[in-house]
Write a structure and sequence with these properties.
This protein is 8% helix and 18% strand. By secondary structure, it is mostly beta strands. A four-stranded antiparallel beta sheet has the order 1-2-3-4, with no helix packed on it. The longest helix has 6 residues. The N and C termini lie far apart (40 Å). It binds zinc ion (ZN).
Amino acid sequence: MVRYGPAVLAAGEWINADSDHPCPICYGVEGCGTLRDEGYARCLEWPSERPLVAGGWLHRIEIHRRQPVSASSGSRPAVD
Ligand SMILES: [Zn+2]
């Protein structure tokens, strides 16, 4: 079982939300933040099942990593 205690929050590098990095949960630009490279966000507006002691709630972010292109001929436009 994975627990989301203060350790994971303290170990990571938090990026405070601003106009360049809005909250991925509520799109707010003040008070919220994201945890760099960890796929978590702290949102002060949108509740989750993981409230934080410091305020707000912890949210899991789905990160869509770019897949390496296997084609040798470079990038190809996406086709619907
Ligand atoms: Zn937020």
